[in-house]
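Quick one: structure tokens for this chain, please?
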Amino acid sequence: MTLTRTAATFPPPVMEARRWLDGVTFPAERPLINVSQAAPVDPPPTALRQAIAEAALTRDAAHVYGPVLGMPDLREALADTTCKIYGGDVRANDVAITSGCNQAFAAAIAALCGEGDEVILPTPWYFNHKMWLDMAGVESVPLTTGADLLPTPDAAAALITDRTRAIALVTPNNPAGVEYPADMVMAFAALAAEHDIALIVDETYRDFHSRSGPPHDLFQNPDWRDTLVHLYSFSKAYRLTGHRVGAMIASPALLAEVEKFLDTVAICPGQLGQHAALWGLQNLGQWLAGERDEILARRAAIAANMPKLEAQGWSLLGLGGYFAYLEHPFSTSSADLAPDLVRTAGILCLPGTMFHPEGAESGARQMRIAFANLDAAGISLLFDRLAALPAT
């Protein structure tokens, strides 16, 4: 029997983890702490919701098909914002709006890769990237990272073959949280250019970067269009996860190929979500800065609570964006430990095995904590519960 595209990959990890909740009750004195999914649960700010309602009521065009590559005003606004953040030259015709950042990645792979081609993914990898490559018939080539969870261009260079079409980086990283140094990202761009392959840089969590200034100088290279495919998400910035608004910045030539994919899959991104993203870019700069400050405060709370776990043998491997990536001290694999935590500690998190090739030993010792929806008190409670786990 022929293996279908969807059968070629694993079940969605977040959905699989939610099934661990079936039949489990959580007493009032120990409610569930859900740190499994990296998405804001609060709705957008009231002013943005009012802008969405206004668009729904007064803009007839918001209810019909729009341009495949997105609203011209939004493409222009994102190009301008990108230039302000990174410097360099980015124009509206370098921008495509997509139905979420996952679709941007899928579209990029469709435009770059053929059957049996290869894409290099640092491990631990973002599972949806791996899933799409599986379903596209593209080989995921794992790039092992060091103790600091940073990939190196030298290690990537050793993996490049005549079938390699791209290297895909996520920074701040999902799942590891680490922020890739600017000089390292630039070195990857130079490597990709040398081998005439694409460098895909997914910056879904860019707005919560801890460093001041631009995260990298990729757009300041006048030849960036020859190599770079940049991905972004409005979902995390403006709490628009349900509206599915992402973006790709790449050469107009590549976007012409991307347009074929997008037209076939969704015809156009949702209009109301695009109006929301545009309004956010134009009006919510100060609000977003406050959101960043809050995420950085929660990041600091993770660091402040780590001594509770370090005393029990845990280690903090990575911290940033929405994530803390931990190494646990138990003999049990994280694949078994994570579902057991639901029952024994009222914690839902994802095991490292979901972010590594099947059978990788490192994943068995790792856990991802998505902390963006926990305040400082919630983070302290989470760490108290983890520290109270009996040794095994």
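The chain has a mean pLDDT of 95.
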